[in-house]
Amino acid sequence: MEPGAGPADLGPRRGADGSFSLWSEAFGEGFHSAAGALSEAQEKFVRPSQLDRWRPGQGLVVVEVAVGTGTNTAALLQATAGLDLPLQWWGLEQDPQPLALALASECFRSQWPAPTLARLEALVQSDRLLWGDGRQAITRLPAALQGGCDLVWLDAFSPRRCPQLWSLEFLAQLAALLRPEGRLITYSSAAAVRAGLVAAGLQLASIAASDPEQWSSGTVASPSPLGESFPLRSLTAKESDHLLCSAAEPYRDPTGQASAATLLAERRLRQSQSRAVSGSAWRRRWGVASGFCQGRGWATEGGGSQQRAAQEHGLGAQGDRDQKGEEQRCNQIRPQINLEQDSEL
Ligand SMILES: C[S@@+](CC[C@H](N)C(=O)[O-])C[C@H]1O[C@@H](n2cnc3c(N)ncnc32)[C@H](O)[C@@H]1O
C-alpha cells in the first residue's frame, strides 16, 4: 500500500503508557515506540531540548520534521505553556491522515489540556504546517530560518523504512537551519544517521536512556559542543567506533527525488565496495549478539536482554523506528535477519 493511501493504511494502537498512536501498513512500522507516544515525546524530544535554557520572553524557533499525529507538537506546546517563550513553529508532513485521525480520537484529545489542544489545532491549520514530501517542503521554509532555528525535531520512520528523510543531503539541509547553539534532535542512534550529522558539520551527543537496558535514546546534534548535562552524554567508545564501520555509510539522495528502494540499494552497493570494517567485525569487537528480529528490538540470541542485544547493533529499540513498538507484530512474525547481509550494519 502506498504511504498516505488513506485511513486504511493507518490503524490505531496504544503504547504501554496508554497514549494514542498509529500503525502504518504502508511503512510497516508504528508511529511511536512501545513505551508510547507521550513517553517517547518527553524522553526523546522535549527533555533533550532542555527548554530551561531559555529565559522568559526569549523566542523559540522550532522546525518539526514528520508531524504525524501531532503528539510531539502538542508535547512541545504543553512544555512551553507558562514559560513565556514566544514560539515560532514550522512543521513538515506529507500525509494529513495521521493528524486527522488523532484529532478525531477521544483518546488523543483527552491527553491534553484544552488550551494545548486549541493551540495545536490552530497551529496545524495554519500555514506553518507545510504539506508534501519533506524534501521539497523544506525549500518552502522562510529563508530567515536558515541559521535561525533553535530546535529541529526529526521523527521520521526509521532509516530503513523511510531513507528519504535521513539522507546526507536532507540532514545537511536540516543542519543548515540551526543557529550556532541550535539542536537537531532525533530518536535515531543509527550509525548512518550519526555519520550524516557529523558530515553536516555537527557535533554529537547521545540521549541517555531512562531504561538501563538501553544504550541510548537517540541523538542530539549541534554546530556547537553539547556538553554532558543530563539527559545528554558523550558517545561511548562503542558508539564512536560504530561510526567507523560500514553501518555508518550514509544514504545519498543528491536529487532529492529518489525512491526508498533506490536509496537503500545504492547504499548497499556502496557498503559492499567500502573498505570500512564491516558491521559484523564491529559487532564481534564489542561482543554484540548476532541475531534479532526486524520488528522492534527483539533480539533472539546473545547475552543480556533481547532488547539490549538489538540496540547494540545500532538498530536498537531506541535507535531505529522499526525497532520500536511493534511487539505484537514482532511476536507474530519474528522474521530473522542475517546480520552479515543487513545493510544497516
Ligand atoms: C513516525 S511518524 C511521525 C510521528 C509524529 N512525530 C507524531 O508525533 O505522531 C512519521 C511521519 O512521517 C511522515 N512522512 C513519511 N514520509 C515523508 C516524507 N517523505 N515527507 C514528509 N513526511 C513524511 C508520515 O506520514 C508520518 O506521519
- The fold-level CATH name of the largest domain is Rossmann fold
**How is the main sheet built?**
8 strands, mixed
Q: Rg from C-alpha positions?
A: 19 Å
Helix percent reads 25-40%
In terms of structural class, how would the helical and strand content be classed? alpha/beta
CATH class of the largest domain: Alpha Beta
Strand order of the largest sheet: 6-5-4-7-8-10-9-11
Number of helices: 13
- Overall pLDDT: 85
Number of strands: 13
Oligomer: single chain
Distinct small-molecule ligands in the complex: S-adenosylmethionine
Order of helices and strands: EEEHEHEHHHEHEHEHEEEHHHEEHH
How far do the termini sit from each other? Answer: 27 Å
Identify the CATH architecture of the largest domain: 3-Layer(aba) Sandwich
Number of domains: 2
| Proportion of residues in β-strands | 15-25%
What name goes with the CATH superfamily of the largest domain? Vaccinia Virus protein VP39
User: Which residues form runs of ≥5 with pLDDT under 50?
Assistant: 291-345
- Tertiary shape: globular
